[in-house]
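Need a sequence for this fold. Nothing fancy.
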């Protein structure tokens, strides 16, 4: 139950100039119906997902990879942003220095209306050309041809960071900068086991930020948090945001 000024208890006060950075993970989209990758309720409990994922292979610009992505894209196309995604849009509109970093590839933050989103792991609604480097929007599912092709004629790969691949340097540098500059840092729905995202809240702490975690379960980050709220994102974040304005 959040009924007091959490910010005040952390020594901060609400004002548009407060530097706020948010890191989200798969947990923020669970209440929208997007399955997670790990544990109970994960995508891997679905035999079709496992079968299609096993056929996907580097260099990822093949039909088999796109068949797996089309399965995921169809599923996510039926999911809508939830109250947590929308609260982050309100926060972006209020704070002058606001940065949203996400590990999610589902595009739900952008669908909700967030403008400044650093998508560390890419976006499943985009394809990337491995020949000319162009990133192409692919909002429709099903796609007409698999694999879809670039304007230059070369087959596209999903614009998603695969396991073991590096994060785009420019995005990573921006995310680390926003983490260092934050006065308030929110960690929502991430298990904190995927690096380098998991290091961002720690970097924020080391640079003086107050860090609040929202997660129904304790995580490896929990012991380091200024405050850890046990709750679901779509229920908890709107309440937390409201609490910022109470005395
Ligand atoms: P994760 O699967 O490792 O952890 C999810 C976290 O969400 C857990 O700590 C869990 O306790 C928490 N959680 C469960 N229900 C919640 C709720 N209602 N509200 C808030 N939190 C809740 O996720 P991760 O840390 O983001 O790492 C997974 C990796 O897999 C990422 O790299 C991401 O790119 C990818 N992934 C993305 C999506 C997506 O785009 N939605 C989905 C699955 C996996
Ligand atoms: Zn091309």
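Here you go.
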């Amino acid at each position: 139950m959040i009924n007091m000024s959490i910010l005040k208890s952390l020594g901060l006060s609400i004002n548009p100039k407060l530097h706020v950075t948010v890191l989200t993970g798969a947990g923020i989209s669970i209440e929208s119906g997007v399955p997670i990758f790990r544990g109970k309720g994960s995508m891997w409990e679905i035999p079709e997902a496992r079968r299609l994922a096993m056929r996907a292979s580097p260099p990822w610009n093949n039909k088999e990879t796109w068949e797996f992505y089309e399965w995921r894209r169809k599923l996510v196309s039926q999911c809508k942003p939830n109250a947590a995604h929308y609260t982050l849009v309100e926060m972006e509109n209020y704070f002058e220095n606001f940065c949203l970093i996400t590990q999610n590839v589902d595009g739900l933050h952008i669908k909700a209306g967030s403008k400044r989103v650093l998508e560390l792991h890419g976006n499943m609604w985009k394809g990337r050309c491995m020949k000319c480097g162009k990133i192409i929007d692919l909002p429709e599912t099903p796609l007409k041809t698999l694999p879809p092709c670039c304007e230059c004629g070369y087959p596209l790969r999903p614009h998603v960071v695969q396991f073991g691949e590096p994060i785009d340097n420019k995005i990573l540098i921006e995310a680390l900068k926003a983490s260092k500059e934050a006065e308030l840092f929110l960690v929502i729905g991430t298990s904190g086991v995927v690096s380098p995202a998991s290091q961002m809240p720690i970097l924020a702490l080391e640079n003086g930020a107050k860090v609040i975690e929202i997660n129904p379960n304790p995580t490896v980050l929990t012991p380091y948090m200024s405050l850890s709220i046990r709750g679901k994102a779509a229920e908890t974040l709107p309440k937390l945001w409201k609490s910022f304005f109470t005395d």
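For context: The helical segments are 6-9, 47-55, 63-77, 83-94, 108-112, 169-181, 200-206, 233-243.
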